[in-house]
Design brief:
This protein starts with 10 loop residues before the first helix and ends with a helix. By secondary structure, it is mostly helical. Helix 2 crosses helix 3.
Length: about 90
């Protein structure tokens, strides 16, 4: 990878920034296989909120802020068990 600064200026800063980027990318990478969406349980907003331990209104706001992944194919939110579990493992509260 080439330097992010022109003409190799600031080599220490260049290495530091690259290390930060690399470490952040590693945090988000996963060796786990992707879930089999056909076999994953589909949960309603009420079920997911109950499992997480929050109100349906709070979960709706979280979905709108994209803090948790869900879809709204019509008037009602749908979430997968995998995405709820992933959210709960990421947020210990």
């Amino acid at each position: 990878m080439s330097s992010i600064f022109p003409e190799g200026m600031f080599p220490e800063l260049d290495a530091y920034i690259k290390a930060i980027i690399y470490n952040e990318m590693r945090k988000h990478a996963s060796n786990a296989p992707p879930p089999d969406i056909d076999k994953d349980e589909i949960w309603t907003l009420k079920k997911a909120a109950s499992v997480i331990g929050i109100s349906t209104q709070t979960l709706s706001k979280m979905l709108l802020r994209e803090e948790i992944v869900g879809v709204k194919p019509g008037k009602k939110w749908k979430l997968t068990k995998h995405n709820v579990t992933k959210y709960m493992n990421r947020n210990p509260n």
